[in-house]
Amino acid sequence: MNKKRKIEGFIWIVAGIILILLLVINSPDKSSNDNLFSLILMFFGKMTWFLGLSAIVYGAFVFFLEKVNVTRGKIIAFIGWFLSLSLILIRNSVLHGNPLSKTFIEAGRELLSYGFNKQSGGVLGGVVSMPFYKVISSSEMGILLIVFMIVSIFFVVKDFIEFGYEYIKEWIRYSKSDEYKEKKRKLAAKKYAEKLKKTNYKEYQKQMLKEKIINSRNEKLSFEISKKPKENFCKRHKFILTRN
């Protein structure tokens, strides 16, 4: 079972990486309209980046943690996150373009054109934004979309937030326990002993070097002292012979 989960996670990671690499290599303005990648890019627009990164993150969790609880609520929250971000991209395109028409058909056609240019929320975002064509450019709609996206993100990562909270709480509790304090004291004592050992070894090396230098100097002086009487005797003997 664990092996199957690891294979599943690996497949998700590879799929996400391939999608990201295709986005990096093939820029939207250069990609043709006759391949599968172009159709994906046309349908999802910039949200293709979101899909690729999501696949990598999900695959990493499945591969390393193996136990990832994917509930219906999380799937709905993820879809809400995806659609709200897609609508935000469409809204930004509308704000930077011409005002939408007043009729539903014309406004819908204009929203779809924003989706088809691959630089916005995609065709899916254009279709979803059609019912909101009258208010999509309003500041209230922008705030509502951001709030909805934040709430969706919270429900997607809620389990990880709870896990992080429990981990921090348990770590704080353990750090206050006697067991942790005893281990910390022993570790500090071990580090101090190692430091003292290194210091003593350095002092020992210094002392040995000092003694070596002193012994070398003493040997040299002894050699010089033993050499001088012989030289004096030779000089004196030579002086006597010269006088005679």
UniProtKB/TrEMBL annotation:
What keywords does the record list, in alphabetical order?
Membrane, Transmembrane, Transmembrane helix
The UniProt transmembrane annotation reads 7-25, 37-63, 75-94, 141-161
Protein name stated in the entry: DNA translocase FtsK 4TM region domain-containing protein
Organism expressing this protein natively: Leptotrichia rugosa
